[in-house]
Amino acid sequence: MASSGERTPEVARLLDIVSGSWKTQAVYVAARLGIADRLHDSPRSAAELASEIGAHGPSLERLLRALAAIAIVRLRTDGTFELTPSGSLLREEAPDSLRAWVIHWGGTCWPLWGQLLHSVTTGDAVPASPGTAAFDRLASDPEAARIFHQAMSQITRLLVGEFVAAVEWAGTRKIVDVGGGSGELLVAALGACPGAVGILFDEPHAIELGRRNVRAAGLEHRCQFVAGDFFEHVPEGADTYLLKSVLHDWNDERAAAILASCGRAVGPASRLLVVERIVPERFGESRDEQGVACMDLHMLVRHGGRERKEAELRALLSGAGFRTAGVKPLGSTLAVIEAVPAGAQG
What we know:
The chain is an alpha/beta fold and 346 residues long.
């Protein structure tokens, strides 16, 4: 047995877990200060960077050393700092940028995790307060809305290739992206269906970024933008409805209301494609399982929502008048569930 003063592997692992929050904040501050964009063209010293961004030189150097320790930047022999491939993902204009997601997670979401005890003991989301940018605040906070929808766009971009490959698109003529926000998924779907048209349906503050993304993809002539509340209604007349990462934001009652709106909109030959994380029956220690657990707790503290097991998603769909026609994995934790009206043939 280890002595009481010995630093065992278990002690080291627990200390690493508990102190890991410093990494989140170091990367968040780097993203907010635009350090990656400054280092994109050429390496710079801490003093040069501090002068350009208006930071305190010695303190910025300490941040850069910390970023070097986690391979976001690299310290060169001449004392300057350069970007690593991981650090390049923090560039604003990088094709695969995650800058908005980092700012969202390290800034907007950061205060919520400090109140996890409240949510676990009450079962309630953290009450909305300045800085949390909950859904009911996005309409009145343009900057929070911009960061949030950019963050969702960047995360969605990571799975669109797998999504398009997993779905049979033959015969698709009209697609409604319900709560589609940035429009990334709709753009991908329209790209797979050259003859189809689409509707991006969400709240007004959400569809503005979607409008820009659709325009940038050259698909504006094939897409309409409709503002509305998916708890009340969903546009009718489409053969394919998309619902990505919407249900997990809400408790079962509210999720059922969204599906009921979809149920009223679909025709007998329509289908609903639901993209959600699938909670495994048993949890291990893999990175994927940790990711599901993390987002499940995040949904709890932020919205009072939850990630669900496949059987739970099937039950919600059944309760709204849908029959599950198939489930296809997207990567390791996400899946696309194809649902059709319960009375549909086949």
